[in-house]
Amino acid sequence: MAASVRGTAITARVGVALGVAIAVCLVTGLISHLIQHPQPWFDWPTRPVWLYRFTQGLHVASGIVAIPLVVVKLWSVWPKLFDRPVIGGPVRALERMSILVLVASVLFQLSTGLLNIAQWYVFGFFFTTAHYAMAYVAFGAVVVHIGVKLPVIRRALGEPLDDVARSGSLGPSRRTVLRGTWLAVGLATLVTAGQTVPLLRRVSVLAPRTGEGPQGVPVNRTAVAAGVLGSARSADYRLTVINGDRAQEFTVDELRAMPQATHRLPIACVEGWSAEGQWSGVVLAHLVALVGASPDSDVRMISLEPPGPYSRTVLPARHARDDMTLVALDLNGEPLDLDHGYPCRLIAPSRPGVLQTKWLSRIEVVP
Amino acid sequence: MTAARVLLVVAGVAAGLYGGVLLWDTSSTVLVRIAVWALVGVVVHDFVFAPLCAAAGVAWRTVIPANWRSAVAVAALCSVVLVILAIPVYGRPGARPDNPTVLDRDYPAGLWISIALVWACVPAYHLLVRLLPVGQDQVVDRERADDVERQPPSR
């Protein structure tokens, strides 16, 4: 009986949902990649300020949603694994091979993504490059699979769902399996999405973050991990702003003496968590104007953190000239916590948290 | 449709190859790790997880009355999903002493309470179905995509 509940009627329907989830995951992932690896043809807007929070939250949520969908979809086709002949002719061998690539790459993406949001790096390769490259493999395998199965999918979607239930068998019908799948999708979202949807915080019992942290905002890279405990608190601290041969240095007190702006902006991590804070500080455009920078210049933000992949970022001109982009000194009414980037950090609207450079040391106008 | 299918397959192969090109510079050690990670997922699913599910499916048919099976199956699926989501957080393997804002929940409690709630829904659902004046099949048969209850007066 259970064997008759399995079958293309379920595979195709769950497959459509899975295809949508994978497409959303791919597009939002590519957006995040392009923001972090700018291309001349790609422009990322500064409004709405929560746009990156939304796309990256969606990236992680769609990946999590894909987990129950994959479980059910693989369940629905599993007996086919043992179909005879095992290999058969070249066409069949190719089809089987493409399905191996499909399942392996999709499981790879979902498992590495899930481990990454919990910061559990057991796999022994660099997450971002492997996850990015494998995204094309998984996407390509999905597209090939749709191409191969298109007639089957069309036929299965056209068939009524109720065959089994109508024939009088007891136990789960196909409709039950589908409803159960949507229920599991909802549950998976509910128990994890609270790390970016504050309303769900209390029920998201498996979210890697509660959204709590110093000054009400979580931290990804701590001052200890960045090795800036001494330099950030040093009495000799100066923020240097440079444009060609023009340079100015500012102490923290001098920065505080300048006109301050306050904005509510989210900090949104690539790992899918996000939190809103009230940030106060000097408008970046005002600061770089003091050294004669053009509003069309990109700006390089350099951290006190010793050189590494995340110790510096280039802020595109569009974000650099935005009046909501701050060199923040305060978070939620208090001087920045050391883990939030004391003495000052970048906070710009609609940017990945990893590019909101903390413990700023130098701001260079890119010629 | 044939043209569309050929186009899909060609585009898919091209995308997959591009993914391979991106890994071109990767050292062979790392490539092997990536391949192993990908294949282990398949093997674990196809030859451990799926057979266990099938065995459980055979076993439960002898134990669980037919009219309970739907709810039990859905609860089992939900439990599996919860367990998968709990794997990377349960023992907090990624926790680091310098950052208490990551993995800052009681995950064992969260997992077991959520699983308990899922299973508590099984008898609750069963009771609800029995108390409802109409049979489940009738309800299902009546429902359509355009089925909207409590329509406003047409006046």
TrEMBL record, chain A:
The chain crosses the membrane at residues 12-36, 56-78, 99-123, 129-148. SUPFAM superfamilies: Oxidoreductase molybdopterin-binding domain. Residues 233-366 form the Oxidoreductase molybdopterin-binding domain. The keyword Membrane applies. CDD domains: SO_family_Moco. Keywords: Membrane, Transmembrane, Transmembrane helix. Gene3D superfamilies: Oxidoreductase, molybdopterin-binding domain (3.90.420.10). It holds the Pfam family Oxidored_molyb. This is Molybdopterin-dependent oxidoreductase.
